[in-house]
Write a structure and sequence with these properties.
Strand 4, helix 2 and strand 5 form a beta-alpha-beta unit. 33% of the residues lie in helices and 22% in strands.
């Protein structure tokens, strides 16, 4: 099996325990993660060979982040540069009080990447899939250009390319709007994870009030002819402690919907979208002619992530498939 490659920043996450607010915190729970790292670690947990391209400082935090990745059997291709690992603080919400993220990632090792540093030809030698997200090009124009370097090489080598829009408006601070940068990168993609509310802000594709999901996704495919499939997740009747979750898959002809899961007690919602992304990549490689099964696997993986603390989905293939087939409900496995 050939490798899945991802490219992005790994961050230190600090969260107050017991749903405390940041203003109340006297200690923090520590995790490592962030979008592309979460995807690649979950895929490794599913048994796929993977590579993760990133940059970390030459200090104990950089070493610890890479040790965590290696514990998942992830092969990190880590450039040692700069003096700090990016940080984000996550305040868990509860009931009607939403969660909150505060970023502290300016001038991190990853944000100081320079064009021409990464030998993408060598990195993609034994790969079949490349995944990236909109977080990376949001950090600097140079990182957007590095993403394009990777995408051009991956496309030339015939890799399947996926992207998660992952629109974070607070990160786009270097004078460019997402819709000025992202379309130039998305034109290389075969698979896209995104929501219809991101259409105009990120893709620059206008929508009308009466447009259905299928109509909007069809516009995306017309704008980006290389796109073969679009996936999206939906939170239903949500507050910070509970919600329903389902997902959809569009191939240009038919919109397929997953079953809906009702999650009554959310342990940690960070990384649920990344769990879905890992699940759909796993599903499409494992069942290339069965998008319904691939979608159901991804939706079940998302559901399980809500029950797991930290950024990364620790569920195994066996556990995801058990939930797919109705073996949920929280019974003790004996």
């Amino acid at each position: 099996m050939n490798k899945v490659v991802t490219f992005g920043e790994i961050l230190l996450r600090l969260s107050p325990p017991s749903h405390l607010r940041l203003s109340q915190a006297t200690s923090f729970d520590l995790y490592f993660g962030c979008a592309e790292a979460n995807v690649v670690a979950s895929l490794a947990k599913f048994g796929f060979p993977v590579k993760f391209v990133t940059a970390v400082p030459n200090n104990e935090l950089g070493d610890a982040s890479l040790s965590m990745l290696r514990s998942f059997q992830v092969e990190p291709i880590a450039f040692t540069q700069g003096k700090r690992l990016g940080i984000y603080y996550f305040e868990q919400g509860a009931s009607e009080r939403p969660g909150k993220v505060v970023y502290d990632r300016e001038n991190s090792s990853f944000s100081n990447f320079k064009k021409g540093t990464i030998d993408w030809e060598t990195i993609f030698e034994d790969a079949e899939w490349f995944h990236w997200s909109g977080i990376t090009p949001s950090l600097s124009f140079e990182l957007a250009e590095i993403c394009e370097e990777a995408l051009k090489t991956a496309s030339k080598k015939g890799l399947t390319i996926s992207a998660d829009l992952n629109y974070r408006p607070t990160l786009w601070q270097y004078g460019k709007k997402a819709k000025e940068v992202m379309p130039n990168l998305l034109k290389y993609c075969d698979l896209l994870l995104g929501g219809i509310d991101e259409s105009e802000k990120v893709l620059g594709v206008e929508t009308q009030e009466n447009d259905t999901e299928e109509m909007i996704f069809s516009k995306w495919m017309k704008t980006f002819p290389k796109l073969k499939n679009i996936v999206t997740t939906k939170r239903i009747s949500a507050d910070a402690s509970s919600n329903g979750v389902s997902a959809s898959f569009f191939d240009g002809k038919e919109l397929i919907n997953s079953k809906k899961y009702n999650i009554s007690h959310i342990i940690d919602r960070i990384g649920a979208g990344d769990a879905f992304m890992a699940g759909i990549i796993y599903g499409m490689i494992t069942w290339p002619k069965d998008p319904k099964t691939a979608l159901e696997f991804a939706a079940a993986a998302t559901c399980l992530k809500y029950s797991i603390s930290g950024d990364i989905n620790l569920a195994t293939v066996k556990e995801v498939e058990a939930l797919m087939h109705g073996n949920g409900g929280g019974r003790v496995s004996r």
